[in-house]
Amino acid sequence: MRLRRPLAQRTRIGAAVAFLTVAAVGLAGCGSSGSGSSAGAAGGSGDAITLYNGQHEQTTDALVKAFTAATGIKVNVRSDDETVLAQQMEQEGRASRADVFYTENSPALAELSGKGLLAPVEATTLASVPAKYSSPTGDWVGVSARVSAIVYNTDKMTPAQLPKSVMDLADPKWQGKISFAPGETDFQPIVTSVAKAAGDQGALTWLAGMKANLKGHDYPDNETIVSKVNSGAVEMGLINTYYWYRLRASLNGAAMHSALALFAPKDPGYLINVSGAGVLKSSKHQAAAQKFVAFLTSAAGQKVMAASDSFEYPLGSKTPGDSALPPFTTFQPKAFDLARIGDGKHAVTLLQEAGLL
């Protein structure tokens, strides 16, 4: 993942935060106090935690403001690529300043979990999210989700012309017509899924075809891909759904020249990707850190997520997503649990062997 460029938040975030200041007052009062920078939003309790943030900054900003308004706990945010942050926390070990790690994708959390660096998430927090979207060992919790999809230029392609499987994207007929971002952590679960379906050699053959088909459309990130597809610079791209909705919102009603399409049900490229959060075992502010993670999955926090320009699907407290999104229950993704996605290292190895990293 590359660090996301902030997008303008929709004005209803302000109303949501104001509502939560009153409605979520029951969250106030943290059981942990301690030192910390006062760089976060002002709060009344004197508590502070440090959040290492790999999620989109505008999403995190809305959640942090609402949490501090509801609890008085300050949150000092450090944002960077989630893989960079995970590596730093591994190096820092028990001396890490991080209290909470919030990611866009699950592999970075799985990496810290495998190193024994995460504390168990409180049972009530885990219970607010379907178990399949959280750590199998209970040391991080799923917060939100989105779906992998094709974005295509509607002036250049029709739905009938689109590939039905992610495997089809390696066909030479798509040379110069597709784009994907191999350096994004969004892409790793798809590589892992293809490797499980076709074997490592099959995945390498697929990646070789994908690489050949880029041909001048090797864009750095998914934001660029969706913009290039919409402008007609390339016919289609492999992204997660929320990038398209964010572009549409940022254009403020201007005509779109692109649309989203899903792969065939259960296809290796049709995946639910999970954003999650965990508390560092080394945190000196365990109670406050657990309270923040609990807020992310609570009805209050999930309503902030749904009201923001995140366009992700809330996973906790049965909160519905943005009304602009198709219902989460309508998707038919490949049944591919988070334990199999793992820490992403095998996908990275395959991408390196294919010369894409």
Explain how this protein is built.
It contains 12 helices and 9 strands. It is an alpha/beta fold and 357 residues long. 53% of the residues are buried.
Task: Walk me through the topology.
Layout: H1 12-23, E1 48-53, H2 57-71, E2 74-79, H3 82-92, E3 100-102, H4 107-114, H5 123-127, E4 141-153, E5 178-179, H6 188-214, H7 222-231, E6 236-240, H8 241-250, E7 258-261, E8 272-279, H9 286-297, H10 299-307, E9 313-314, H11 338-341, H12 345-353
Helix pairs in contact: 1-2, 1-10, 3-4, 6-12
Biggest sheet descriptor? 9 strands, mixed
Rg from C-alpha positions? 20 Å
Total beta-strand segments: 9
Secondary-structure element series: HEHEHEHHEEHHEHEEHHEHH
* Spans where pLDDT lies below 50 across 5 or more residues: 1-45
Strand content: 5-15%
Number of helices: 12
Approximate shape: globular
Helix content: 25-40%
Mean pLDDT: 87
Question: SS-based structural class?
Answer: alpha/beta
Distance between the termini: 12 Å
